[in-house]
Structures are given as C-alpha cells and as structure tokens.
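Need residues for this backbone.
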C-alpha cells in the first residue's frame, strides 16, 4: 500500500498517517470522515517530506512499530526542514515498547502514546487537525 486518501474536503490540509496495518488504516479513515478530516495513508515513510510539502499537512501520525529501517531518519529529516517546523508528529506503539518511544522522541516526535490511548483519543486528535 503506497498512498491512499480519504475524508471530506479535498482542499483541506490532510492528516498524514504512516502505518502498514490495513485494518487500522480503515479505522482511522472511518473516524476521520465524520470529523471532516482528509487522511492520507502511507505504508512507509519514504517520500514523506515531499508529501508534507505537496499536501500542506500539519499533523503526521506514525506507527512507531512500522518495520522500516528509515523511519527515524525520515523523522529527523522532517525536523531539520525549516519549512516543516510547524508539523506536529505523533507516534504510537505498544505500551510495552519503551525503546520505540524513546527513539522517536530523540528523533523529534512531539508526542508518543500507547496504541490503546491513541485509539481512544483518535477522534479528538483528528478534530484538532480540523481546527
């Protein structure tokens, strides 16, 4: 799965979601629709900087357990770009994966949350992107 877009207003700034789990991606899309948020789903972080620039996204949600050797490098690249300084990065993983949380925060992720908290707070997170 490369890129897929779903949601309401195609002209609105989307939320970019980086995850490989198709079932979970559909859950994010289903939550985004009623919130009026457009979602762009990526299965890997490659090309993320270009997508953020092209789409004007201000929020990126990242599965920190994604099996991608360049995930942390892409996060660092986003943080090194002056024009992307306002992009919020939120990462989620199993509550047991403390190493993923620590590595993500060191790379520049703004907020890390357990997967269960992410699922619980997803409607509010998406609503904040619509504001």
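Answer:
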């Amino acid at each position: 799965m490369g890129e897929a877009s779903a949601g309401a207003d195609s002209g609105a700034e989307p939320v970019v979601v980086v995850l490989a789990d198709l079932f979970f991606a559909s859950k994010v899309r289903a939550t985004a629709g009623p919130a009026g948020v457009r979602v762009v789903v990526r299965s890997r972080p490659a090309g993320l900087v270009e997508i953020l620039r092209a789409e004007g996204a201000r929020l990126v949600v990242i599965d920190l357990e994604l099996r991608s050797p360049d995930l942390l490098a892409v996060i660092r690249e986003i943080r090194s770009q002056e024009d992307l300084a306002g992009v919020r990065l939120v990462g989620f993983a199993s509550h047991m994966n403390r190493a993923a949380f620590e590595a993500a925060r060191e790379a520049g992720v703004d907020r890390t949350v357990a997967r269960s908290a992410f699922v619980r707070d997803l409607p509010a997170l998406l609503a904040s992107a619509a504001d």
